[in-house]
Amino acid sequence: MGHAQTVRKYCNDILKKRIKSCIWVQLAIKRYFNDLKRVADPAFPYMFDAAAADEIIDFAESLVIPDIQKEDKRLQLLPWMKFIYYQLYGWRHKSDPEKRRFRQGYNEIARKNSKTTSLLFPPVLYDFLTTDSAESYFVTKDGDQSEKAYNELLNIIKEDRALNEAVNSTVKAITYKYSRIAFFSSESGGIDSYKNSMSVIDEFHAYDTDKIVTAFRYGGRARKNNLVLIITSAGNNIASPCYAENKKCKEILKGTITDDTYFGIIYAYDEGDDWKDPANFIKANPSLGEILTPETLEADLKDALLTPSHQPDFKSKTCGIWTNGTVSWIPLEKWRKNYTKKIDSAELSGASCCAAFDLSSVNDFTAKTLYFLYGTKYTALHTFYIPEETIYERYTSENINILEWINEGYVTVIPGSTIDYSYIYADLLNDAKTYDIREIAYDRWKAGQLTELLEEKLPHIDFIDMDQSLRSLSQPTKDFEKAIRDGNIIDNNPVMEWMIGNAVIRPDANENYKPLKENKTSKKESTGLFLRLWHIPG
Fold it and tell me: Does the residue 273 lie in any domain?
């Protein structure tokens, strides 16, 4: 039975707003419709084969799922699921209709929407049964999850007599003729030699590195129809590889990055949506009313409202809002209101500003910031410094985005294993030539010699010893917080976003507080010095 009508109706319902959705779902559908129009262009290398997509959907819906709570235990795909199958399996190369277009897929959907059962198990089984010498791999966070996935898939196979008789199972593997399904955890080693035909990555948000995803993307190059398919919910760590993949997917959907072999869709709240409003549930939960009940999500919402420590998990897993896992000082969705117009530093040449620097201990981040009054808003120019010899350790254990930040100029690498403060000295002198710096704030810790040198070279600038005590920083902290919440800052720096997301507060009995690092091992407490900058002269 064809499913094209169901898919088209779903797409039209989204675009005509009969189904409430976020911008990323709308962009994924618009991309589909635009590409259908491009098929007639001889220069466009792809065609669409609805019958090929129908085949795997029919296969999926023939599977019996033992834990389905209905009399008919066969899988029933919802329209949004069929749309995803149509993209991944319907698009083909004109020059070779047997060759699929998409080799990478990223699908971000809230928990309990039947992601794994409906979108991961069927493609693995389909590849296993239809590909010659298939190497189909299922990847989970850890060994326990891997064993659970193995047992669930084996139970699905056992429900089909012919299928059960044809395949064999061993510890952590299922085989059929020359094909096999193997199960891995994100920490698995020795994966570079595999020639995977299908790799599905479950709940990528929980992975510490992208090592296994990268290995499978490279390993499948020799395969005609290799697909690395990521299915995940949003997470609580914006330093994770999944958050980087989320950003990449969004850039492709926006058209900023062109990759015709990458399909992505994200079900989530839009920026500015009220996470406490149940009317927004459907945006991140496309199975609402079918698999998920509103009452279930309303109970979760009530729990999050009563227990603030549960809010990050509710926001990420139910609303599709990326958080940083703590009840942060500034929620990331508030900070992202500052992602407005990105100001080119050349536009600020000669403008008045205040500066601050915060020197690190041993190998931590050192920070330098300039704040300008740009119209009625403040705009920030940050520079962060790290020692060259710490890059790999930071990439593997602290933040996978570090290499991208270095390449894009957000982070300056200083040779050696510790920070050489002469680089900050030179940069501040250059800043003083480019901008009208009125004052420079600093933390006296470790800054004595550097400050003396700067005062000698820049006698016309006021130097402010910024006391880091709770008493001194409490009111500036509140002023800074208010400016952020009012949207009066322009700050698109991803490093600062990460640091803001990891800043917490612990008010005293008099409600005095200042930003604190969530833990000592990762995030530089650079925010404190910037609080001075709201008193820009003139």
Answer: no
